[in-house]
Design goal:
mainly alpha
């Protein structure tokens, strides 16, 4: 239990690094070398894992809470305007909802970690 609580603070950063790695591989298959700037988005998260910084942590948390809130609103507006629900649409709704909610939870977890370290 002690090991789990010690490493649980890295879960949100590893989550966002995994999302960035997945995004890079998908874009790299279709676009090629122009996908490499996507990897730059992973630098702040990797930095937080290797050498944590309280201000960067709080900034990442606030930024991704705002982006995730926007994603949830966009997801809900898309959900309510869909008339025809094919299998692909249902699949998109399910995965998009999980992604939006997971991003929001991980961003809140980052903010919680930064507030926890500051006291």
């Amino acid at each position: 239990m002690k090991i789990i609580s010690k490493y649980s603070k890295f879960v949100p950063y590893l989550y966002f690094l995994a999302i960035i790695a997945y995004w890079f591989t998908v874009v790299n298959r279709s676009e090629g070398i122009s996908a490499y700037p996507i990897l730059l988005f992973g630098i702040p998260f990797l930095w937080q894992v290797l050498k944590p910084n309280r201000k960067l942590n709080f900034t990442l948390g606030i930024t991704f809470v705002c982006l995730s809130s926007y994603m949830i609103l966009a997801y809900l507006s898309d959900l309510f305007n869909i008339v025809l629900l094919s299998y692909t649409t249902k699949k998109f709704i399910l995965y998009g909802g999980f992604l939006a909610i997971a991003n929001f939870i991980m961003a809140l977890w980052i903010i919680r970690n930064s507030l926890k370290r500051s006291f």
